Amino acid sequence: MPKKRTLPYVLLGLINDKQHLSGYQMVQEFKHEISDFWTASHSQIYPELQRMTDDGWITTVTPDTQPDANRNQTYYALTSTGHDVLLDWLREPLTQKDTDLFALKLFFIKTSDSPLLKPLLAQQLTLSQNRVTYLKSRKETVFQSQTDIDSHYGHFLTLSRGIERESNYVLWLQHLLETL
């Protein structure tokens, strides 16, 4: 089964955040904001915008609605369908296969009292706790003796770092949930 495309949801989130954006502005958002955790190229963005327009998720708006708009650029706005699609995606549960979506979804939550925030954090917490349990069991299985550690020391270090990183992630998520 092909992997679900993520780019249209990211573009919907960007447009939703700014109300109207040109393709060029979206490319800039990827370069300056989203590139810390997700990438997309110019050649991916423009065809996706056309598909989203064809699907009725976004519509083009004239530069007259943008006082500082470049009249040579096409600006996009969400349709009500596009808004519903974005909300459905944000509500869609995370799975172990798509935990990289957590940061993207989190990026599009605007306020600390958003009804989307706590469920998203709780989902990621459960996934991360499960990941820690799995990594610890792998460490116990693969490295039962000092000889096992000595003969695959790099693997041992990598696995130990993975456990530490994921355990810290669990602590961060727990702290966030406690403070909300």
UniProtKB/TrEMBL annotation:
Domain Transcription regulator PadR C-terminal: 102-180
Domain Transcription regulator PadR N-terminal: from-to ranges: 11-86
Entry-linked PANTHER family: NEGATIVE TRANSCRIPTION REGULATOR PADR (PTHR43252:SF6), TRANSCRIPTIONAL REGULATOR YQJI (PTHR43252)
Protein name: PadR family transcriptional regulator
Lineage, broadest ranks: Bacteria, Bacillati, Bacillota, Bacilli, Lactobacillales
Source domain of life: Bacteria
Pfam families xref list: PadR, Vir_act_alpha_C
Organism: Secundilactobacillus paracollinoides
